[in-house]
Structures are given as structure tokens and as C-alpha cells.
């Protein structure tokens, strides 16, 4: 037998791809401490923390408006299953965290969907889980977006809706006064 035949079967590794965006990233360089385009191993028993404090957080965001610890990701295996998942927990007392429109207050946590958008302040992070088999560690692969992840056209209208329930924005494309039409026209 050759050494290739005797080698252990290589197991795949769960990888969390995260694409970061902030409208002021060009001027403020808040992502300069992040290691982009290179996979990084994280032990399964470690919590991956994101925030401003470099002594506590593995992933640093250089912005005074970011909390010392903004949020944490914990890798785990579901009970009675071979499925590996991530849990996201908001660790900021000042800022709410949104995961696909689910708002998390301080110390709230949920399972991270396999593909989702995480938002806090002006930060947008697209998170995508590539499933693997390894129990000892997972990998992170960080990317930098040049354009907003959330496009304005896909965001719900932030205009208040009057008590009548009819938004004034539906009339913006029409003439200023209602026009009566004959059915045959």
C-alpha cells in the first residue's frame, strides 16, 4: 500500500464566509484589522467575538461607535444530530443587532441562518455558512464588499403610514387630483 492509500480520510471543515460593508469604509478604514481573503481557523470551543476591543475580540472593527464587544458567534452541534450550526448573540448594550429583520437586544441570541444579513448601525454583513464535518474547528473567510449588501430598493418604506392605513406614497406617481374615467376608455 502507498502512503496515499494509508492516509486518513480528509474531513471537510465548516466555513463561515462573511462579507463586510460600511458606507465610510474608504475614509475611516474601520476594517483594516480584519484579515480578508484568507481562511482562518477557529477552535470549536472558542467564541468568535467581533467588536472594538482588541484584547477581547478576535475580529476588530476600528470605530468608536462600535461596542467593545458587539456580537459573538458560537459554533455548536445540534442535539441528537450531526448538523453543525452557529449561534449569534448581541453583546452590545447600546446597539440592537438585526439578523434578517429579527431584532436582537442585549444578550439575545438566535441560530444563525445558513445565509443571512447581519446589521448594526451602518454596518452590513452578509454571512454564509458552508457546511463541513470537522468537530475540532471551523474556518472564517472574510470578504470586503464595495457596494451595499442591502440595496435601498429592497428595503421597506420608512415613511409613516397614516391611521387610514393608506400611504401617501401610492399617490406620488399619480396626478395631484383624482380623475374619473369611463369604463369604456
TrEMBL record:
Gene Ontology terms: biological process: innate immune response; positive regulation of canonical NF-kappaB signal transduction
Gene Ontology CC annotation, any one: cytoplasm
Cellular location(s): Cytoplasm
Domain FHA: 49-121
Entry keyword set: Cytoplasm, Immunity, Innate immunity
Keyword Iron-sulfur: no
InterPro entries: FHA_dom, SMAD_FHA_dom_sf, TIFA
Family per record: Belongs to the TIFA family.
PANTHER family linked: TRAF-INTERACTING PROTEIN WITH FHA DOMAIN-CONTAINING PROTEIN A, TRAF-INTERACTING PROTEIN WITH FHA DOMAIN-CONTAINING PROTEIN A FAMILY MEMBER
Record protein name field: TRAF-interacting protein with FHA domain-containing protein A
Native species: Piprites chloris
GN (gene name): Tifa
